[in-house]
Every structure is written in C-alpha cells, then in structure tokens.
User: Fold this.
Amino acid sequence: MVGLGLLGMGLLGLSGCGSLAGFDGQTLSVMVVTQRRLDWLRRDSLRQQLWQPLLDEYSSVRPNVRVNLTTVDENQLEEELRLRTSRGLGPDLLLVRAPMANTLLKAGLIAPVPDTAAMTRATDAIDGRYIERVRQGSRLAGLPLHEAVTLACYNRQQMPTPPRTTEELMAMAAAGNTIGLSVDPYGIWWTAGTRGADRPVTSIITGTVPSASRTREQEREGALITDWLVWLRQIAQQSKVDIANGPEELFDGLVASRLDWIPCFSLTLPPLRKAMGPRLGVSALPRGPGGPPSPFSILQVWSFGLDSSPRQRQNAAALAQLSDDPLLQRRFVLDTQEVLPVNRSVPTPVASSGVLAALAEAEQQFQSGSPLLTRAFTAEHLQAVSHRIEYVLQQVMVGVFTPQQGVVLLQRIGQRTP
Amino acid sequence: MNLLLEQVLGWVGFFSRPIVLEQLLIAGVAVGLLSVVSQRLPSGTPPRLWPPFKPLPLVVAALLLSVLVAAATGRRYGLLLLAWQILTAFWGLRGLERLLLNRWLPPETVHSLVSRLLRPAFALIIALVLLDAVASPRDLASVSLGTWFGSEIQLGTLSLVIVVLYFVVAASIHPATAIGWIAKRTLGISEGSRKAMVTLLRYGFISLGLVWGVARLGINQAGLLAVAGGLSVGLGFGVKEVFSNFISGLWLLVEGSVRPGEVLIHDGEACEVRRLDLRAATLLRASDNAELVVPNQNFFTATTTTYTRSDRTRRCGFEVSAPSSWTPDRMIALLQELAAAHPRVLKQPPPRASLLSFSPSSHSYRLSFSITDPLRAGSITSEVKLALWRRFDAEGLLTPPSGEGGSSAQG
Assistant:
C-alpha cells in the first residue's frame, strides 16, 4: 500500500498536478460490468460514448470528486466482488445488468438502493416496468439507467427494405441474400416468439419449468418448442442461412458483406455504424406466424457497493440520480442511438430516427413476447445453463438430435431446482 | 496519461473507508503488541522458539495474529490476509535463497540469480497482485501512451515488452550457459569456444527479444528505418566508437582470436580475458588481480600476443651466472635437472639450458622451460630460481646466482 501511495505521488508529480485542481481526496470507484459477447468491440468506446457525458455533468455538480472507472467481465464479477469486499476495496457503484444485480443482492455482495428521500424521488421518476425488474420485496437491487434490445441489422445495398416477417426473411434467403444467425441469446432466441414458443423458452431461460409430472400445459408447451426446433432445423438446412459462432462472427460478416442480414444487439450499433456508414440498415426483428419476435432485453442499472464510506455513498447516489435526469437521459438516447430511456417523462423520440423507432418497437415486442423476463429474475440460472441450451440448439440444427430429443433436453435444463 | 492519473487518484479514496482503516488499525495494534512482547521476553529465550525478533518475522506474525483476531470477531480481514500472504511469500523467498541456493550454487551465481531474476520477478508479481487488488490491470493496460512511429502504444503492451526484455537480458545467460555446457560435453569444444558460444547465444537471445518487442509494439517499420537513417548519421559522429567497439566484439568472438578464458599480454602483463561484452573486454591481470576494462577496438586494431590461441603452453626462462669453478657441462645438467624437477614444468618439450658467455671468474647461462598455465609464469620461474639458490647454497658455492638482476623470464 505504501508503494502504491508512493507510486501515486510520483505520478501526480509527473503530471504536473494538472488534474489535481479541486481534488480533496474524495473519490468514487465505479465498476462497469461488461459481457464478453456484447462488449468485445465497445471496451474502448464505452467511456467516450456513454460515460464521458455523464462524468462531465457530474464533475460540474461535484468538481472535487474524482471518478475512477474499472471494467470487470460479468463472468468474473462475483468472484471479484467477493475478493474485493473481503478487503474493503469493493466499488462504490456498479453498472450492471438487472439480472446480475438481482443475483448480487441475493448473495449479499451489493447493498440495496438507499432508502433516502432523494432516491425515492429518483425511483418515482423511473417507469415502473423497469423498477419491477430489480425489485426484491421492499428492496431494489439497482437504479435503472437504460435499456438495450435485440434488433435486426442489414446491408442496405443488398437489401433495400428489411423483412417484416420470417417468411419474407426466408424468401430473401431463397432469392440469394445471406442471412446470419447464431445460437446465443441475442442471435436466435428471438425466433422463439415468431413460432409462439416464447413463454416456454423463457421458462427454460429462467429455470422455472416445473419438475413435476407432465401436465396438459407442459405438453402444449413441449409441442410449441418442438415446432420451433423443427423450424430452426429447416432454416439451418438452407444454403443461404449461415449459423455463426456468436455475435462477433455475425458482426464481422455484416461488415465484410459476407452476410446481408443479422440479428444485432442495440449496443453494437455504434461500431457497426462506424464500420458500415450508410450501408447499415436497422429495423425491428421480423414477426412470425406464431406472433411477434421475442427479443432479448438488457436493463442496465446502478447498484451500490458494500464498502463505501458515508461520503462515498452520497457521491455514488448523486451520480446514479444524475444519470436518470430527464435531459441527460434524452441526451444518452439521441447521442448513442443504441439505448432506450428509463425515465418515464422522457419519451423515445421515434419521429426523429428510424433506429429509435426500431428500438421502441423492439421494446414493445420484448414486453409482449417475454413476460417472465420483465419480472425480476437472477442471472445465475441463465449463466449456468446458457451454454447447455446453445449446445442442444446447435445439435438439433445440425441434425445430431431430433427436435423431440431437443425438447426433452431443453425442458430438463430449464427445470426448477428444488 | 490522464486516465492513468485518475486510476491512481481513485485508490486514495480507499483509505477513507472505515473497513480499510479498521484493518490497518488492527494490524498496527498487533505489530505494536508483538514488538513490546518481544522486547520484554527473558533474555534466555531461544530465538528458534520465538522467531518474531527480527522486523520481517515480527510483522508476519503480527499480521497472522490480526487475521485470526479479525476472523474470530467476525470482521473483514481480506486486506490483512493479502498483506500476510505477500510478506510470508517474501520471507519464504529469502529462506529459499539462504537454504537452497547457497547450498547448490556458487555465491556469485546465487547473487546474480537473486538480484537479477528472483527478486525482480517477485516484485513484479507483487506489483500485479496489488494492482489487481485496487484496480483493473486490464483497464490500466489499455491506457494509451500516445502514437509512436504511427502505432498507438498502450501501457500494457509497453510494460510487457519492457518486462520481457529485462528478463531476456537478465536471464539469457542461464540458457546460453546450459547450451554451451551441453555443446562442450557433446561436441568436445574448448573452454574458450564454449565461452564464445555462450556470449554469442546471449546476444542472439537479446536480439530476438528486441525484434519481438518491436513487433509486439507494432512499431511502423518505416519509422524504424527513419531512426536507422538518423543513427547512420550519428554513427559518423558521436557514436562511432561505440558502434566500432560493438562490431569489434562480435568479430573477435566469431573469429576466436580473443575469447573469454584466453590469456594474453596487455601492457606487458599476462592477463586472462574474463568477459567480452558489447563495448569492452574485461581482463584479469594475474600480477595484482586487477580487472582491466579494455575497449574491444584495441584488440581489433593492434597486435595481440596470446598464449592460448592454439595451445596453452608458455615458454619461460631466465639467465643465471655461476662461478667458473663449475664446468659448463655440470652447470647445464644441474639447471635442466632442477627445472625438470618442478611439478608444473612440462617434461615435453624438455627444459633446456645453454651457455651464453664465459670469463675467468664466472660463466653466464640461460635456462628455458615450458609450463601449461601461462598466468603462473612469474611464480613458477621464481620457484625454479629458489630451488637453484638452495642447491648453490647446499653445494657451498659462495657466489649466489645473479638471477635477481640478470635473469629474466621470457615466453
């Protein structure tokens, strides 16, 4: 520690103390939790695109506080937090996805949102749908910041208008357009809704499939999943449908014009725009005969660490509340065009941008297509089973398992643990 | 750099946290308590039973006590545990140095291994552990230091290159020595060739490390060429001597005319080449054990007298006067017999004595003989002279040999 202090002093000396103006020892340690599958391209631009405007605003409100940002991958988060908290060196504030925040609160690794008058005002300003996703009884696992959803990205040069239905999508594939899909939550699970299998698939994701003897309802859900798996196998047999190994490959394929249409997560839009320019088209995902698609949604929330001093907790709360300020929320949405606001008084300006209209439509699809995911659920089951689910889907699509075998395996994976 | 500064500033805030201060307080109290207890122990207490007399063991024991107290009272102790782990590891490292290395390896090798490799490696690991405790090394690694030669240089890449190059420079001697030893055992090369091979291999490893470092940093080759162009101008002026010495060193190694282990005459004195480095050779002067640092260029441009180019024998000799009452035949036989009797004088070629001049009062002779250790020419010559004096004394000759003034050792 002494060495680090000396190092710090040395660096301060080297810097000419330019950044020390107004610094009185108050710091705020913010941990940004990233997910490898979504943030592989965004790590460098995270700060510039999202955090810098917020940090600039914050430094104008609290000029004497230095904000220290660190990023941690979601897979290592629990272990990292346990270790840091045992030392008293945990973050003051975490920017994390809602299911993970629920998991952390349940595990006692974060503190609930402070029950203060200012915080109550902040939560009151947020749309109740978002609050429900982090509510655990009377406690909140985090303060919602913004929401991101699955969309469709396509090459305008190859596909002047996006497909509105899965039939149109397959027709375009038959006509020569290359379609990219991948078996991860963002790449293929949206198709469950188009076959009417959104509810049973959501049960599998959240681990809420009953383990009791089969009921008529379960048989009906099993039939819907079978229909979905049969359809997946059919599209996998089309020569113009490419099953990629994750979102990175889809991204690269679209940028390199190997693929003409892919499902894309809204958080990857900025790098796609940068790489493709006007060639990039964005729309909501296509509907199917079974209903609207079931896009995946990520609600990012501010959660509070356990180790903060009272002053650090105040500073953390101030930053979290500031991020829900209506003007800043609107600025986030308009500047990035990749997330949706959570403040109820900030409507998504759909008229100004086709991308924002697509985002708003996708959010509606999520609300209607994945009802279980709109409630608070923890990430542990999803984290534990996502690779197994992807394995089963992959094996069904390449023909190793029959759809019927796939259903049995998926329902077994999604059974509620006693 | 601002990002880096913000990261470092962010760590300051940890010291304002109650939970961190509490752990520091517990550790401080434990250290103080054990210090007092240690000082008040009876003087006869065996140190082995109570190790925390020295500062490091005392702090290690105090931290362990702190961890136990904190755990027993349900407090958090991760920071104390981390400090205890680090200091215990350091203590263990010192124990390893003392107990194991000093028994197995020569002191110079231990010193080199410890100061250049083990402790720097330990310091590096501890720095990374501490960094990981308070920040994200991955984030720090991605801090941009600017654009050099058209490539963005990140702190992590630069640190990695510096660390790897340091360890290549510091540690390359060990694999090079091992390869040289194997080559000597399997191919039967001479000791001088083995040392030359070790030096060349070391330069090779360092060169590969530099090439890797440049590639890793992604430095634009056009930029490097520009630097090389600048250097070529510099070579003509300021750094000409340095470059000349470097090239001379490489040439000498390849040619094998001056290699580590060889014995040569420098400024009229026999010296052994200990090292041949980038700029200069280190010579050990046998007469006073002084180390001379001689620029490589000297050997490259001047005549070098060596005794070890083709073999290690050296021809020594001296002149001596004897009374004319001794016949030359008897004197020559005595001189050759005395030289041959010395254990370090070679039997082949045999010692040879010759009559140089004669007069009514005394005759002058010259004795020459061969030895295998060129550096010991002076001492062996002196021992042969001493044996001659004793023989003269025993024979009752009043005139001792005039070797002190007239004899000279030549090779």
About this structure: The CA atoms of residues 172 and 339 of chain A lie 29 Å apart. The first strand of chain A starts at residue 26 and ends at 34. Residues 2-147+297-352 of chain A form a domain with the D-Maltodextrin-Binding Protein; domain 2 fold (CATH 3.40.190.10). Residues 1-19 of chain A have pLDDT under 50 and may be disordered.
